[in-house]
Amino acid sequence: MKMNLWKKTGCMVLVSLLLLMLTACGGLKKEDVVGTYELVSMSTDDNSVNTQTIEGLRQLGFVSTLEMKEDGTAEMNVYSKKMTLTYDLHQMVFRMEGDEGSFTYEDGRITFTQGGNIMIFQKTEPTVSASDMK
């Protein structure tokens, strides 16, 4: 019985150490996420907004964006409703006015989840103006 307890405890300690090492080594950096993103998908408890609807709204001038800034803040503009957020890359959370939501980052996409709402933003390529080329 005591040996089983020691084995279980030892395994738990090893797993915890491995997770800690993976988190420390593979951590997301601000340089990875800083930039501007556009909404590509959205769903709520009630319904989802498909890609065609989002594209149609974009063509009408309704663009939803997320700008991740170097200072740990973000500006979200969802169909003309602007919100200021803070983000924490270690905990992978957004915070806004006392609310908190989680997010993931993979291949230039941020998936923001809060309650039953999911929003997926795709990083946009920086545009180069004529003055930047001189």
Word description of this protein:
This protein is an alpha+beta fold. The chain has a domain at 32-123: Lipocalin, CATH 2.40.128.270. 28% of the residues lie in helices and 40% in strands. It has three helices and nine strands; from the N terminus they run ααββαβββββββ. It has helices spanning 2-25, 30-33, 51-59; strands spanning 35-43, 48-49, 65-68, 73-78, 81-88, 93-96, 99-106, 109-114, 117-123. It has an eight-stranded antiparallel beta barrel with strand order 1-3-4-5-6-7-8-9. A hairpin with a 2-residue loop joins strand 8 (109-114) and strand 9. The longest helix is centred in the first third of the chain and has 24 residues, at 2-25. Mean pLDDT is 77; it is low at 7-25.
